[in-house]
Amino acid sequence: MSLVLILLTVLVAETSATRASCYLRKHNDGRIIGTAKFYSITGRYQNVSVDLYDSGLTDGLHGFHIHEQGVTGCDCLTTGGHYNPDGVNHGGAGGAASSRHVGDFGNVESRQGRIRTKLTYIVNSNKQGEGVYNVSEDRFEVRGDRSVVGRAVVLHAGTDDLGLGGDEGSRKTGNAGSRWACCTLQ
Questions:
Q1: How far apart are CA 55 and CA 31, in angstroms?
Q2: How confident is the model at residue 43 (pLDDT cuts 50, 70, 90)?
Q3: Which of 7, 26, 76, 80 has the most beta carbons within 10 angstroms of its beta carbon?
């Protein structure tokens, strides 16, 4: 009987995956220019994917974050600051990752106005590689106390310095520049 209960518990835990997504819209324009998707199995791993098509965004690295509030209209400035429930300095994947906001995802790369990337966060693992990051705890939740649902995804016009810029702006936002596109996760 207890073996069946353990097996059932494992199966329920296996199916506890949650997802959230939204259509990225150009700031103050409303034009849909891409998608952002978040997928999480609590305590195991988290995926974040961004697909941005011909957006007019310059080639190079661009800051990508979760902000505190959802978008009002098409105004990315209504989203507040970075989602930072722990009150820590800004960082990002590939930078000062041990000290970063829950909403810090570092940079995504645009090539010929397109972005197609997937970031994977594996909890308590030794796996590392391009786009794969080992973390000691869940960085975000789709549902729960650290939920990103109802919050905004913001793609910035500039490069996120990952909190390594040595000034107050770097410690707070990564100096990632203006808000290029945004959407509210559902």
A1: 9
A2: confident
A3: 76
- Catalytic residue at 62? no
The beta strand positions in the chain, using DSSP E, are: 18-26, 32-41, 45-52, 60-67, 104-110, 115-123, 132-135, 152-156, 179-184
* Overall CATH class of domain 20-184: mainly beta
- Virtual torsion, Cα 109, 112, 113, 116, nearest 10 deg: -50
The pair of three-digit structure tokens given for residue 54, joined into one six-digit string: 């011909």
Task: Pick the catalytic residue from 90, 100, 139, 171.
Answer: 90
What are the domain boundaries of the chain?
A: 20-184
- pLDDT tens digit string along 85-126? 888 888 765 544 557 788 888 889 999 989 998 878 777 666
**Which among 27, 62, 101, 139 is annotated as catalytic?**
101
179 among known catalytic residues: yes
Side chain identity at residue 53, one-letter code: Y
Would residue 65 show up in a list of annotated catalytic residues for this protein? yes
